[in-house]
């Protein structure tokens, strides 16, 4: 494969200096009597326009590479990790069903936590097929409808993979599996499993694994007659691209995805439990891993901004490169605020599910919320307008 190189455009702050040099050159030429004033002015104007065109073409070229690399180096690798870990979850649940004991239960519980990480790190790009084809809801709707889950367990309906796939999204996916594996109070014992509960759990894990695979397929191959969404995003600005008619639209999609993720973390995942002082608002309360969700959501925004997935060893040209090209100070500000938000979340006492009513925990949660909101504000008020041009 030929490695594509990028010739970066001339920074904007060089423009006035370059024009000044052109004018000085023109004046020097005039003093030597080699040309006339009108010719000098025309030459200066032409060179200035050429320089502006170089800058515009360079920025546009960088935008196109940012969008392409975002699809290839961030989205697809994250979903590939999800597929691997969803397969492991399905396998460990299968082992639990076949041989229920404390060891197989703990293995399935750990697999659930491990699978959670790449999914939460995908929240900053929950657009495209995750949204339009319903994979987001199938995999991660919350809160769980515990009453309806209980109704499935108590019914005489025959449990099959197709039956579970057709359930409401609040009766399947991550959090129904979590409820069955960990129990409502994170105190599940292997003796709590009835044959029907194990059967339900088995098909839940299989359905989850299928949805994860379908989501990846929708990006790399396409499903239901749709083109691969990787191709749709990577070709932003092409004349036939109705989803992203301009390259700017593709870059803006990345920014909007980050904003949506940060807003949810600050105002829902942290904000609602902080206001009510109740654990019911914590997304992964059954497993006591809600703080891991917060952290991974911030890492999702960070990966989207930096154009990388460290766990997968991938990286490319990024939104950070684009912002730095136009406003280096803003890029550094975003990086600082992102790190502060991550550190503020790490300072919250864990597990927050058992400490939410402690004064120190509430102070740390509020500080984390404000840090995430500050980052959200900077991206919304400064990065987004820069991208929109």
From TrEMBL:
Gene3D superfamilies: M75 peptidase, HXXE motif
GO cellular component: cell envelope
Highest taxon in the source lineage: Bacteria
Plastid in keyword set: no
Pfam families membership: Peptidase_M75
Domain Imelysin-like: 76-378
Keywords: Signal
Location, primary (coarse class): other
Name of the molecule in the record: Peptidase M75
Lineage: Bacteria, Bacillati, Cyanobacteriota, Cyanophyceae, Coleofasciculales
Subcellular location: Cell envelope
The organism of origin for this protein: Symploca sp. SIO1C4
InterPro entries assigned to the protein according to its UniProt record, in alphabetical order: Imelysin-like, Imelysin-like_IrpA, Imelysin_sf
């Amino acid at each position: 494969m030929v490695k594509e190189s990028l010739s970066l455009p001339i920074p904007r702050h060089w423009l006035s200096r370059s024009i000044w040099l052109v004018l000085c050159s023109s004046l020097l030429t005039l003093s030597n009597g080699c040309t006339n004033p009108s010719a000098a002015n025309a030459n200066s104007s032409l060179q200035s326009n050429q320089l502006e065109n170089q800058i515009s073409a360079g920025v546009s070229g960088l935008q196109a590479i940012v969008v392409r690399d975002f699809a290839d180096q961030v989205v697809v690798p994250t979903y590939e990790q999800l597929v691997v870990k969803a397969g492991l979850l399905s396998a460990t649940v299968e082992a639990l069903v076949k041989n229920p004991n404390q060891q197989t239960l703990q293995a399935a519980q750990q697999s659930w936590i491990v699978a959670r990480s790449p999914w939460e790190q995908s929240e900053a790009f929950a657009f495209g097929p995750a949204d339009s084809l319903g994979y987001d809801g199938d995999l991660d709707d919350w809160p769980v409808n515990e009453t309806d889950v209980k109704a499935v367990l108590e019914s005489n309906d025959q449990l099959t993979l197709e039956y579970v796939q057709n359930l409401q999204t609040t009766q399947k996916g991550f959090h129904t599996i979590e409820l069955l594996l960990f129990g409502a109070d994170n105190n599940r014992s292997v003796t709590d499993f009835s044959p029907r509960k194990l059967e339900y759990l088995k098909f839940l894990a299989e359905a989850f694994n299928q949805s994860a695979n379908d989501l990846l397929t929708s990006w790399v191959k396409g499903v239901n007659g749709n083109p691969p969404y990787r191709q749709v995003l990577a070709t932003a600005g092409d004349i036939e691209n109705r989803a992203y008619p301009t390259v700017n639209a593709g870059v803006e999609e990345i920014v909007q995805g980050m904003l949506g993720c940060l807003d949810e973390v600050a105002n829902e995942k942290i904000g609602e439990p902080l206001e009510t002082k109740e654990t019911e608002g914590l997304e992964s309360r059954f497993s006591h891993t809600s703080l891991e969700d917060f952290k991974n959501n911030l890492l999702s925004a960070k990966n989207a901004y930096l154009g990388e997935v460290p766990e997968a060893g991938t990286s490319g040209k990024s939104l950070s490169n684009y912002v730095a090209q136009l406003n280096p100070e803003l890029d550094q500000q975003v990086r600082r605020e992102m790190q502060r938000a991550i550190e503020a979340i790490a300072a919250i006492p864990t597990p927050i599910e058992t400490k939410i009513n402690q004064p120190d925990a509430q102070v740390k949660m509020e500080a984390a919320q404000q840090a995430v909101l500050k980052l959200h504000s900077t991206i919304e008020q400064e990065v987004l307008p820069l991208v929109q041009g």
